[in-house]
Amino acid sequence: MWxxxxxxxASSIKNHVLPYWAEWEMRVTTRLDVQSWPQPDREGLA
Length: 46
What we know:
The protein is mostly helical. The chain is built from two helices and no strands.
């Protein structure tokens, strides 16, 4: 179970997080930058 979760997390980071944040310097990234990060439409997922 954990192995599948870790693979899923790694895949999400590789495919969604890194492409957006790869060029950002962490020391200058603000809370507002993260909060304004475009998120996928989650309508209907609940």
